[in-house]
Amino acid sequence: MSASPDFRYKIEFDPLTDIGPRPSTQLADLISKHPKLKIYTSSSPHFQGMKAIWNLEYAPNEPLALVRVTAPSEVSTVIKFCVTNNLPLAVRSGGHDLWGRSLIDGAVILDIRELNQIVLAEDQKSITIGGGTQTGDVVNFLDGHGLVTPCTLASVTGHLGWAFSGGFGPLVNAFGLGVDQIINAKIVTADGEMQEDDSELLWGIKGAGGAFGVITEAKFKTYPLPKMLGGMLIFKFDEAENILSDVQKLLDEENVPAQLSIGCHFSKRGGAPTLTMMFSWASVDFEEGKKWLDKVKSLGTVMMDMVSEITMKKWCDIIAPMLPQASYNSSRSFFISKLSAEAAKILLTASTKVPESLQWGIGTFFIGGEAIKPQPTSSFVLRERFVFLHALAPVPEKKQLTESIEWTNDILNQMKDEGLVKANYLAIMGHDLSVQECFGEENFERLKALKWKVDPGNVFKHVPAQFT
Ligand SMILES: Cc1cc2nc3c(=O)[nH]c(=O)nc-3n(C[C@H](O)[C@H](O)[C@H](O)COP(=O)(O)OP(=O)(O)OC[C@H]3O[C@@H](n4cnc5c(N)ncnc54)[C@H](O)[C@@H]3O)c2cc1C
C-alpha cells in the first residue's frame, strides 16, 4: 500500500473522480469554462484528506469544493466566479487557524498549498515564497544556504498565515517580527485583479493579512546564521516565582543583546507542573552566547539543560514532536507589558490546575530588540517591550472543551482584571474578542477604511481581521 499523500505538495487530479459524476449545479460554470482547474468535491478520494484542518471542531465542515490552484491566474478565476455567483469563499494554506476559518461549510475553498515555490535572491538577502508555503519548507530550504528568516518553532503552520498578524518565534528579537520581514507581496483582491505596488495595501496586509485578498507570493528578508545556540532548560518548579521575577529583571537590563531570546513555558508533565525555558542565541558568537546562557541558568536550579549549538532547522525538529496534534481548541493569546509578580502568580496558579494527562500549556516570549523598532510600513501596533502570551489548552475530545475554555478564559480574565492586557494577538485571540484591541484606534480606523475600499462586498470575511 502506498503512503498517504502529503497534501502540501502536488497531488493527482482526475476530473472523473475528483469533480465526480454529479457536481453541484452551483459549480457548473466553473467546471465547463475552466476544464484544467483542479476542483475536488466530496466524491473525490482526496477530499477528506485535503480538507483536514488543525481545529477538530470545524473539521466536519463540508465545503462545496476545494479548488487546488496552481497559478495566480487561477486564484483570480476562482475569486471572480465566487463574487459573480455570490458563493462564500475561504482560503486554505497551512490549515492551522485556531478557529477553523480556512474550512467553511458550503464555501468554495481556495486551496493555495501548491503555490509553494521558494526562490532565493542572487544577493541571498531575501526569498520569494508562494502564498501557500509551509514554514518548515522555508526553514529547510534556507538551512541549505546557511540562512534564516524569523519563524515559529511550530513549523507546520503556513508561513504567510503566521507572519501576517505579527509572527512570533525565537529569532524576532534579533531580526524583527515575521510581519517586518515582508518586503513586498502580490495580492489578488476581490475584483480578481493582481495588486503589486500599493503601499497602503502592503501596510494593511502586514498586520491584518487575508482581509484584503489572497497573497499569492511575498518576498521575505533573510539573514546568514549557519548556527545558533538553542534548546530547553527545565527549572525546578518550586523556584518558579523567583526565577520569573529574576528573568524579567535580567531582561530589564539596558544592555541585553537583541540576539538573546527567552521564552518561558508552563505546563504539566507526568502530573507535575514544570517551568521550561526556551533559550535562543541568534549569533555565531558562542562565547558571548554562553555567558548569557550561564546568567540564565544561574537564576534557579536547572533540572535539565538541553541547550546546544544547533541550526534553526534542528531547533524546529526538536519541537516538532511536542506540538499539539489536531485538537479541539480554546486558545487565548494577548500581550502584557511585563511578567510582573501579579502576572507570574496568575500563570503559575493556572499551571498547577492543568488536569493530569492533558498537554495544556502557557507559552511566553519576551519581545524586544529589533521586534520593537518602529515600523511605519506595518499595521502591527505594539513597538515597546512586551511579553507575548499564549495559553493553549487543546483537547482530543469535544466533551473536554468546556473545561479547557474555562481554564484559558480564567487566565485572560484575571490578567484583564489586574489591568495587565495591552493588546490582543489577532491570529490566536478568539473571535469573541475585540479586533480594535489588536491595532489601537488609529490603525484600526485606517485598516477599516482600507478594507471597505478594497473589499466593499466583504468577500474575504473568513479571516481573523474583522472590520464590521
Ligand atoms: C499548534 C500551533 C502553534 C502555533 N504557534 C505559533 C507561534 O509560535 N507564533 C505565532 O505567532 N503563531 C503561532 N500559531 C498561530 C498560527 O501561526 C496562525 O494560526 C496562522 O494564521 C496559521 O496559518 P495557516 O496558513 O497554517 O492557517 P490557515 O488555516 O490555512 O489560514 C489561517 C488564516 O489565514 C488566511 N491565509 C493564510 N494564508 C493566506 C494567504 N496566502 N493569502 C490570504 N489569506 C491567507 C486564511 O484565509 C485564514 O483566514 C500557532 C498555531 C498553532 C495551531
UniProtKB/TrEMBL annotation:
It comes from the Eukaryota. Pfam families: BBE, FAD_binding_4. InterPro entries: BBE, FAD-bd_PCMH, FAD-bd_PCMH-like_sf, FAD-bd_PCMH_sub1, FAD-bd_PCMH_sub2, FAD-linked_Oxidoreductase, Oxid_FAD_bind_N, Oxy_OxRdtase_FAD_BS. Gene3D superfamilies: 3.30.465.10, 3.40.462.20, Uridine Diphospho-n-acetylenolpyruvylglucosamine Reductase, domain 2. Keywords: FAD, Flavoprotein, Oxidoreductase. Residues 59-225 form the FAD-binding PCMH-type domain. SUPFAM superfamilies: FAD-binding/transporter-associated domain-like. One of its GO terms (molecular function) is oxidoreductase activity. Signal peptide: none annotated. Belongs to the oxygen-dependent FAD-linked oxidoreductase family. This is FAD-binding domain-containing protein. It comes from Hyaloscypha bicolor E.
